[in-house]
Design goal:
Number of strands: 11
Oligomer: single chain
Strand order of the largest sheet: 9-8-7-10-11
Strand content: 5-15%
Shape: globular
Number of helices: 12
Low-confidence stretches: none
Structural class: alpha/beta
Mean pLDDT: 97
Order of helices and strands: HEHEEEHEHHEHEHEHEHEHEHH
Distance between the termini: 11 Å
Bound molecules: phosphoric acid mono(formamide)ester
Length: 332
């Protein structure tokens, strides 16, 4: 592996091999596998799981890591190309990334969507421009349109729970949230479940359809793996027989970059909060998934999150094992 930027372009078998390594590392520690290796972590946005699980995973493999959060004890970094740098940013990523890479063996970057230009975010323009100037293997810690480490952990969680890959209904549902959230997690989740060979339903209100390039990528993954991908606004039909309900909020692509209009558009949708009644016609052992962080009683009710269907902590724990497999492949 030269880096880990997304599941797009990976074969289902490659992901399974990577997750077999993750499970092996979970069962049989290799505390010296990455001895002397250093991971740099560049976070333009906040994190709890990604930051902690990468540092813990690197330490468990015998390596070490350092974290840079621009503007928090370090220089603010400019990411735009060709701009006059007479504002707050003292340094450009074109210098900062090669400098950080010169201290490390791999570099992870978290850089969320700009949220103003849908096309630029779908192309992951800012993230890709940083990867281009990175001379060591790069890892996507969540970019504008992808969160592959989350996707790997989610796949492993379903494997751990013995949810079959083929013929099981995976429902990615939109949920209400006070803010317009990025498309990265829903795009990664739909791609992951399709590549796993599941029957994927994207459930969302009218006006919240995932952009066509995201759905096209998921359909291509389903074609490789023998699954299917569809979308609907019909909650009753979508939830019937579901084996997994994966909740996430995302911004309406119709109002991308216009938070005021978007807020008005979603104002009447507060009943898109996953409650126990959502499981009435689902499979008896249907699980609830979410990448976290999650707002209780906004996205999902306490009773679901605290009940036996919820596997959100399992997903978060699997971030570490899945990422350790990535680090092992890149650096061992
Ligand atoms: N799911 C996830 O990436 O969590 P953090 O934003 O806390 O890293």
């Amino acid at each position: 592996m030269k880096g880990f930027l997304g599941l797009n372009g990976m074969e289902p078998g490659e992901v399974r091999e990577l997750l077999a390594l993750a499970s092996r590392l979970e069962r049989s520690p290799e505390p010296e596998a990455l001895k002397g290796r250093i991971l740099a972590l560049l976070f333009f946005n906040p994190s709890l799981r990604t930051l902690a699980s990468f540092q813990a995973g690197m330490a468990r493999l015998g390596g070490s890591s350092f974290v840079i959060s621009p503007g928090q004890g370090t220089w603010l970094l400019e990411t735009r190309q060709g701009v006059m740098m007479d504002g707050a940013a003292a340094e450009h990523v074109r210098e900062a990334i090669p400098v950080l890479a010169s201290y490390a063996d791999a570099l992870g970057i978290r850089s969320f969507a700009g949220g103003t230009d849908l096309q630029a975010d779908l192309e992951d323009a800012a993230f890709r421009s940083m990867v281009e100037v990175c001379p060591v293997p790069a890892i996507n810690l969540e970019s504008a349109i992808d969160h592959p480490c989350q996707a790997l952990a989610d796949w492993k969680t379903m494997d751990d729970l013995e949810i079959p890959a083929r013929g099981e209904k995976f429902v990615l549902t939109w949920a209400w949230h006070p803010k317009p959230l990025p498309l990265a997690v829903p795009a990664a989740a739909v791609q992951m479940a399709a590549l796993r060979g599941m029957d994927v339903t994207v459930l969302r209100p009218e006006g919240f359809a995932l952009p066509e390039p995201v759905m096209a990528g998921a359909r291509a993954a389903a074609a490789l793996a023998g699954g299917s991908v569809r979308e609907t606004a019909d909650r009753g039909e979508a939830l019937e027989g579901a084996r997994v309900i994966y909740a996430k909020s995302w911004t309406s692509p119709l109002h991308y970059g216009d938070p005021q209009a978007e807020a008005g558009f979603r104002a009447g949708l507060r009943d898109w909060c996953v409650g126990d009644d959502w499981f009435a016609t689902a499979a008896p052992d249907c699980r609830f998934m979410h990448c976290l962080p999650v707002r209780r009683n906004v996205v999902v009710k306490d009773s679901v999150l605290d009940g036996p269907r919820s596997v959100v902590v399992h997903e978060a724990r699997n971030r570490m094992w899945a990422q350790m497999a990535v680090l092992h492949r890149l650096l061992a």
